[in-house]
């Protein structure tokens, strides 16, 4: 293995992952804002940008495969490349959920909301923090920080149940709210899944450092 060349390739890979992470964070932020503000233009921007994120995942995957073939890394070096492969998969899926939220914004943008959006934006803020912290744990290879994410995931699960119960009551009491309430339930579900992917990233950070895959949702 040419160590100098290998380290340069890893540095480029690291930069690409963080760039993709930044775009995904922006997509999540814009998707939530578009819903809160009935902003169809912003929602469309999230949808349009997804192609760029998808391409980044493919490019990073290709780089990882080439590094493995050409450099044949072992031990922690190999774990670094594997972690990058896994991270971009989770990031791409987060972006897909952001796109789904943006599509819901477009679907109900011309409707008066059945209630002020309070818990969904709150859930969104926590999810965004989880994504940021998961990427921070990757940057600093910080297992302790990674393990704190699971605690926030419990908060997200609690908020999802709260939103579900509230919207269910709306649907029971007034059948005309069923369509919109269902859309909001989908939004909450997408946010919950993004939080799960953030936790996945943290699990791969622990793998990177320890060589063991630990389930942080236990």
TrEMBL record:
<dbReference type="InterPro" id="IPR028366">
    <property type="entry name" value="PhoU"/>
</dbReference>
<feature type="domain" description="PhoU">
    <location>
        <begin position="120"/>
        <end position="205"/>
    </location>
</feature>
<dbReference type="GO" id="GO:0006817">
    <property type="term" value="P:phosphate ion transport"/>
</dbReference>
<dbReference type="GO" id="GO:0045936">
    <property type="term" value="P:negative regulation of phosphate metabolic process"/>
</dbReference>
<keyword id="KW-0592">Phosphate transport</keyword>
<comment type="subunit">
    <text>Homodimer.</text>
</comment>
<dbReference type="Pfam" id="PF01895">
    <property type="entry name" value="PhoU"/>
</dbReference>
<keyword id="KW-0813">Transport</keyword>
<comment type="function">
    <text>Plays a role in the regulation of phosphate uptake.</text>
</comment>
<dbReference type="GO" id="GO:0030643">
    <property type="term" value="P:intracellular phosphate ion homeostasis"/>
</dbReference>
<keyword id="KW-0963">Cytoplasm</keyword>
<protein>
    <recommendedName>
        <fullName>Phosphate-specific transport system accessory protein PhoU</fullName>
    </recommendedName>
</protein>
<dbReference type="GO" id="GO:0005737">
    <property type="term" value="C:cytoplasm"/>
</dbReference>
<dbReference type="InterPro" id="IPR038078">
    <property type="entry name" value="PhoU-like_sf"/>
</dbReference>
<dbReference type="InterPro" id="IPR026022">
    <property type="entry name" value="PhoU_dom"/>
</dbReference>
<feature type="domain" description="PhoU">
    <location>
        <begin position="17"/>
        <end position="104"/>
    </location>
</feature>
<comment type="similarity">
    <text>Belongs to the PhoU family.</text>
</comment>
